[in-house]
């Protein structure tokens, strides 16, 4: 007669405990933000991140703000990154290739002034649709001029995409005029303390 077994000697499989991957070594990334006279700029926003060499998604990054001495601090693992620094009233500075392989010093010099730009459109279009820079309702060769403010007289012309850009405009209250032969001129006043976008719509002159 066969006797049945009351138990089992077969043990349940043991799931191994995953071993966490070691955290990558990080290095200090620090530096200063100053103006063109060498004076420190407090409260400047500094970003270092992305991956300038491989465009790898999810690359490490940090944003820091400069202190009263213009100093910022952060940390990143070894790799290639891009960086930028900006402060209200000053032009943004971009550095496209920053190599971190140890403690890294990154200094910025910011020029006083902002970027003023935008598009000029013929009236009646309802606004330019996106991603159509050659839309015929976008006006080229429009003169855009500062008629008041610290940079009175500074001007630019729109390109084939109806876009104009002025660099290193001193911040403040600005009056800006857009004019083109065959169209009525338009003026706008803006309080600009940082990079500013200002679009215009011009009406065709009636014959």
Q: What general outline do the C-alpha atoms trace?
A: elongated
CATH superfamily of the largest domain: Immunoglobulins
Mean pLDDT reading: 86
The residue fraction in helices comes out at under 10%
Helical run tally: 0
Instruction: Assess the beta-strand content as a share of residues.
Output: 35-45%
Number of domains: 2
Brief overview, please?
By secondary structure, this protein is mainly β. Helices cover 0% and strands 44% of the residues. Strands 1, 4, 7 and 8 form a four-stranded mixed beta sheet that branches. It has a four-stranded antiparallel beta sheet with strand order 3-2-5-6, with no helix packed on it.
Structure write-up:
It is a single chain. This protein has 207 residues and is mainly beta. The chain folds into two domains: 26-110, Carboxypeptidase-like, regulatory domain (Immunoglobulin-like, Sandwich); 114-202, Immunoglobulin-like (Sandwich). It starts with 25 loop residues before the first strand and ends in a 5-residue tail after the last strand. The radius of gyration is 29 Å and the shape is elongated. It has no helices and 16 strands. Strands 1, 4, 7 and 8 form a four-stranded mixed sheet that branches. Strands 3-2-5-6 form a four-stranded antiparallel sheet, with no helix packed on it. Strands 9, 12, 15 and 16 form a four-stranded mixed sheet that branches. It has strands at 26-35, 45-49, 62-65, 71-77, 79-86, 93-100, 104-105, 108-110, 114-122, 143-148, 155-157, 163-169, 172-179, 186-192, 196-197, 200-202.
């Amino acid at each position: 007669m066969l006797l049945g077994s009351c138990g089992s000697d077969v043990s349940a499989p043991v799931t191994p405990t995953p071993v966490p991957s070691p955290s990558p070594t990080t290095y200090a990334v620090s530096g200063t933000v100053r103006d063109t006279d060498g004076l420190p700029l407090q409260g400047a926003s500094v970003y270092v991140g992305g991956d300038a060499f491989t465009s790898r998604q999810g690359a490490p990054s940090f944003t820091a703000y400069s202190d009263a001495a213009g100093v910022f601090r952060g940390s990143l693992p070894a790799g290639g990154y891009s960086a930028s620094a900006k402060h209200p009233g000053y032009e943004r500075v971009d550095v496209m290739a920053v190599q971190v392989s140890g403690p890294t010093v990154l200094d910025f010099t910011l020029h006083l002034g902002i970027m003023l730009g935008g598009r000029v459109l013929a009236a009646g279009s309802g606004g330019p649709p996106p991603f159509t820079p050659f839309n015929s309702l976008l006006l080229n060769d429009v003169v855009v001029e500062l008629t008041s403010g610290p940079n009175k007289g500074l001007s630019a012309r729109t390109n084939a995409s109806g876009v104009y850009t002025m660099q290193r405009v001193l911040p403040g209250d600005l009056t800006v005029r857009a004019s083109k032969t065959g169209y009525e001129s338009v003026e706008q006043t803006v309080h600009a303390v940082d990079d500013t976008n200002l679009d215009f719509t011009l009406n065709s002159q009636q014959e």
